[in-house]
Amino acid sequence: MLQHSNFAGARSKRLFGGLFGALMLALAAVPLPAAAEDILVTQYKADPSGGPYGVGIEKGFFKQAGIDITGVINGEGGGTSVRALIASDLGYGETSPAAGLAAINEGQDIKLVAIGSRSLADNVIIVMPNSPIKTVAELKGKKFAISNPKSLGEMTAVIAAEKVGISPNDIQRVALGNLSGALVALENGTVEATSIPGILFLMRGGESKYRVIMGPKDLPLLPPAAEFATGDLMKKHPEKLRAILAGRREAVKYLYEHTADASKFYNDGRIEKPLLETTVRAMKYVGMLDKDIDLSKFYDASFLPPDLQK
């Protein structure tokens, strides 16, 4: 049985407070409007995944790498972010791997060029304190609140189920429209569990209000963020793409050196195929794919710094 007592104590405060608090300060310093090149980042300022872009702009890492990134376009997530990425002047952005891979599978001219975050280090699966449920395995046959079908929350549920040895289809996923709706349903007893970002968990009262049954260190390695580029950018301006990825890498290095637990969340860009294979399994579980795909046709590591291409 997994033990998660005192989750909101020193360890969680270090993970969520130290990492995300520092990042929110960096992100707040970066204005959304831009005059030079714009980067599209899904849920910018609302999700920690985009932290390296805020740091990279503030510290000048992109300029040092040879590209003047001065602003961030806030992506709404999912297919909406992918469409905005494709329509943007630069043709580059960070969004969920699943949304990007689905778009490529549908014929869109983009490729995954880096993995931005390699784990669900900011998510927790929770129940109410008086719930008899102690582990994810006990969610078999129970209702699990998600924001929307095919969302990261739904993929978290199915991959967590797979990890503990139950069929993902044994967990009844209930779409409530947004995270607030999911929490209200949990509190009202309409559902037995849900998954929310750790920062929201703490903001809503932490373990004084909810109980964690699977925390960051136990969640499967399901990458929540990846970098995608259009074929146009890759063919016509490869130097810009290399500069973006080099600048982001330096920002991640800075976060490793200055923010506690950053290495548990951020990835320097290296494309780890097992992480994408986990994403594909999750996509099949939630209906985003109906068969396996040849991942080698969906990504291109050649624009990363040479030592990250291996």
Distance between the termini: 37 Å
Quote the beta fraction: 15-25%
Structural class: alpha/beta
Radius of gyration (Å): 19 Å
Fraction of residues in H or I helices: 25-40%
Q: Main beta sheet, described? A: 6 strands, mixed
- Reading the helices and strands in chain order gives HEHHEHEHEEEHEHEHEEHHEH
Shape descriptor reads globular
Order the strands across the largest sheet as they lie in space. Answer: 2-1-3-10-4-11
How many helices does DSSP assign? 11
DSSP, total strands: 11
Low-pLDDT stretches are 1-15, 31-35
Mean pLDDT over all positions: 86
Structure description:
With 310 residues, this protein is of the alpha/beta class. It is built from 11 helices and 11 strands. It has helices spanning 10-28, 51-59, 61-65, 78-87, 97-105, 152-164, 179-188, 198-203, 231-236, 238-258, 273-285; strands at 37-42, 69-75, 92-95, 110-117, 123-127, 143-146, 172-175, 193-197, 211-214, 225-230, 266-269. A 6-stranded mixed sheet has the order 2-1-3-10-4-11. The chain has a 5-stranded mixed sheet with strand order 7-6-8-5-9, sandwiched between helices. Helix 1 packs across helix 2 (51-59), helix 2 (51-59) packs across helix 10 and helix 4 crosses helix 5. Residues 1-15 and 31-35 have low confidence and may be disordered.
